[in-house]
Design brief:
266 residues, alpha/beta, seven-stranded mixed beta sheet, 10 helices, 38% helix
Length: 266
């Protein structure tokens, strides 16, 4: 990789890894949308790979490990994650082994040789990265004609929570996410050829704000880079809840995700 993340950026990622680590045991039970998107991404995969080696980048507890190996019986995977606790949970659930080995690493600084991977698969993991940096790193490790399969949440996701918090205080409570053009430019700039791209919107519903926030914590996505530390005041919390309640739909309180699905070739 030609661009190394700054110390400040790496410290942020350490915080991300620690937060996801604390959510490792609860992740599978609450990550319904994340798992559904990962399965949809696998359905987009090519029937054949140009080699045997593949990465599940940001694999968390590796819930798709068996399906990935079954899809390509000759494949040998590295399950890469920033959180040692997530990888430990994957091992405890029997998802790692000779054909799916864990590797704790940063997606922007992979300890891997150039042009060695036939496939990089990544779902709901790279939103923590700078698109240009991570795209360059993915292009570096992919072999010629290797495939990138990417699902990543986009700017505009979680707008109900963002707007509800804006009615309560000015502290950042939701991460800023790259937009689709950011990813398209980054992939093209890294020399990755887009084969298919689809921008889909998903809306989850929760019975109340506490349930929504509990799901956030259980999947580790409640870490906010650059957010203020300390407890949220009762008045601000109440104001946020009231603002969110005004958005209630018959199915419950909505939470919207915009997700970009990509298949690209090196």
């Amino acid at each position: 990789m030609t661009s190394i993340a700054s110390t400040a950026s790496w410290m942020n990622k350490q915080a991300v890894g620690e937060r996801f680590g604390r959510a490792a045991a609860s992740y599978d039970a609450h990550a319904g949308l994340q798992l559904a998107c990962a399965r949809s991404l696998l359905d987009m995969a090519p029937a054949e790979l140009v080699g045997e080696r593949a990465l599940d980048l940001g694999c968390a507890t590796a819930p798709l490990a068996r399906a990935q190996q079954a899809r390509w019986p000759a494949s040998r995977w590295l399950g890469v994650d920033l959180s040692p606790a997530m990888l430990a949970e994957a091992a405890a659930r029997g998802r790692t082994g000779p054909r799916f080995q864990p590797l704790c690493a940063d997606a922007e600084r992979l300890p891997l040789a150039d042009a060695g991977q036939a496939l990089v698969f990544s779902s709901f993991a790279l939103q923590w990265c700078a698109p240009e940096r991570v795209a360059a790193e993915l292009a570096r490790v992919l072999m010629p004609a290797g495939s990138l399969l990417l699902a990543v949440p986009l700017a505009g996701s979680l707008h109900e929570m963002t707007d509800s918090w804006a009615a309560a205080d000015r502290r950042p409570h939701v991460n800023r996410l790259p937009a689709e053009p950011d990813w398209r430019r980054a992939l093209a700039g890294a020399g990755l050829s887009l084969q298919h791209a689809e921008n889909l919107t998903f809306t989850e519903h929760y019975p109340d704000v506490k349930s929504l926030v509990r799901a956030f914590k259980a999947t580790g996505v409640d870490h906010v880079q650059g957010g203020a530390t300390g407890l949220t005041g009762k008045r601000a919390w109440r104001a946020m809840c009231d603002a969110y309640e005004a958005r209630r739909q018959p199915a419950g309180l909505p939470l919207t995700w915009r997700v970009l699905f990509v298949h690209a070739l090196r």
